């Protein structure tokens, strides 16, 4: 029971069947998405699919905690006075330039792994989640620590929506349904994730479902599905859908969205094949010694950025931190560690407030806003 509660707090898809959880899930079965039998038809053709599951190119260890360690982490994450909670009000900005034409290269961080990327005149939204909780339940699960920067209906016309994998903090049913209703952009997803969207009523013509190494395009913007080191699943089964990072390659600029990943040798391969990148969006939060391979520590994010940019002048923007409490480390620790590592490696970093637009060509002055 504690193990299941821990996984739910982390925002992963592995849930237990305890009575309290079943009551919390009552009325929300649609959020679970498609079952393995429906997904299998798409997954079986992939070379990365073996014995009924997808596998990492770099092996990733299972979550292993003693019962006491599990209890300690759950208590920390549920405590009102937790160090993992922001000590003050998190500043939120309304994104700039939503009514303007998209620029050559810019990014507005909307919280967690959600970012609005402008690249060579296109707008791409990554892992959108506008819900209050990253959970199949509206009453149980990690809750936002700050408001969304702008109503979802206020977003400008998007050219693509990119999904990294099907965990609840990256694939949110209510946000997907709203985007399907208010936008015309296609959804670029890893293999198997399209089954969830089809079950939720998204038209087949709007789903571009890819394996690692495959690509699609919108105009002259190419989107390449690339490896990540993680796992997937929305209920009791794991790894029936693929997880991925994404390359956004325009005529003049290249951006990389890491999604959710541990450090992987694939960074260097992706950099060699598709880079160097002008912008990387790298996860820096929700790390712990108990799961060292599926989430990066901040220092590993810097190392991965260097792999992707061939130690060039690209800009690193941190994601996967500051919005949901998914690990017991102090709230601002990921950024403090990131900046220390980046300084030692001469890496350019920008840490936007939720909603703030960052333009690599005109970097903003240093503002340690996370020390609220």
Measured between the Cα atoms of the first and last residue, the distance is 35 Å
**Would you report the number of β strands?**
16
Helices and strands, in order, run as HHHEEHEEEEHEHEEEEEHEHEHEE
User: What oligomeric assembly is this protein in?
Assistant: single chain
Summarize the amount of helix as a percent range: 10-25%
Mean residue pLDDT: 90
Number of helices: 9
Give the neighbour order of strands across the main sheet.
8-7-6-5-4-3-16
Kindly provide the radius of gyration, computed on alpha-carbon positions and rounded to a whole number of angstroms.
19 Å
> Can you tell me the overall shape?
globular
Beta-strand level of the residues, as a percent range? 15-25%
**Uncertain segments of ≥5 residues (pLDDT<50)?**
1-20
Major sheet characteristics:
7 strands, mixed
Q: By helix and strand content, what is the structural category?
A: alpha/beta
Task: Give a verbal description of the structure.
The chain has 372 residues and is an alpha/beta fold. Helix content is 23%, strand content 18%. The strands form 3 sheets. The chain has a 7-stranded mixed beta sheet, covered by helices on one side. It has a 7-stranded mixed beta sheet with strand order 9-10-11-12-13-14-15, with helices on one face. Strands 1-2 form a two-stranded antiparallel sheet. It starts with a helix and ends in a 14-residue tail after the last strand. Helix 1 (2-9) packs across helix 4 (67-78) and helix 8 crosses helix 9 (333-345). It is globular, with a radius of gyration of 19 Å.
């Amino acid at each position: 029971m504690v193990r299941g509660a821990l996984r739910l707090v982390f925002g992963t898809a592995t849930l237990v069947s305890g009575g309290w959880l079943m009551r919390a899930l009552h009325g929300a079965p649609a959020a679970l998405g498609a079952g393995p039998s429906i997904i299998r038809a798409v997954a079986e053709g992939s070379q990365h699919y073996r014995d009924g599951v997808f596998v990492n190119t770099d092996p990733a260890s299972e979550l292993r905690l003693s019962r006491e360690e599990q209890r300690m982490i759950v208590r920390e994450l549920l405590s009102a006075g937790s160090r993992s909670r922001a000590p003050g009000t998190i500043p939120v900005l309304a994104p700039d330039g939503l009514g303007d034409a998209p620029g050559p290269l810019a990014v507005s961080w909307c919280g967690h792994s959600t970012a609005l990327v402008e690249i060579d005149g296109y707008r791409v939204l990554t892992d959108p989640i506008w819900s209050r909780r990253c959970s199949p339940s509206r009453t149980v699960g990690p809750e936002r620590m700050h408001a969304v920067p702008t109503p979802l209906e206020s977003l400008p016309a998007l050219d693509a929506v990119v999904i990294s994998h099907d965990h609840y903090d990256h694939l949110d049913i209510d946000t997907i349904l709203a985007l399907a209703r208010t936008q015309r952009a296609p959804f670029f997803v890893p293999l198997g994730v399209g089954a969830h969207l089809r079950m939720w009523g998204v038209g087949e013509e709007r789903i571009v479902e890819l394996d690692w190494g495959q690509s699609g395009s919108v105009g002259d913007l190419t989107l390449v599905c690339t490896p990540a080191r993680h796992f997937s699943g929305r209920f009791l089964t794991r790894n029936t859908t693929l997880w991925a990072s994404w390359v956004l390659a325009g005529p003049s600029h290249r951006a990389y969205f890491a999604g959710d990943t541990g450090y992987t040798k694939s960074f260097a391969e992706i950099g060699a094949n598709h880079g160097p990148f002008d912008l990387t969006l790298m996860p820096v939060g929700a790390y712990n010694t108990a799961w060292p391979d599926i989430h990066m520590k901040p220092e590993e994010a810097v190392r991965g950025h260097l792999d992707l940019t061939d130690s060039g002048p690209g800009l690193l923007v941190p994601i996967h931190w500051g919005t949901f409490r998914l690990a017991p480390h102090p709230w601002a620790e990921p950024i403090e560690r990131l900046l220390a590592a980046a300084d030692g490696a001469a890496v350019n970093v920008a840490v936007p407030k939720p909603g703030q637009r960052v333009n690599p060509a005109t970097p903003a002055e240093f503002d340690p806003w996370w020390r609220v």
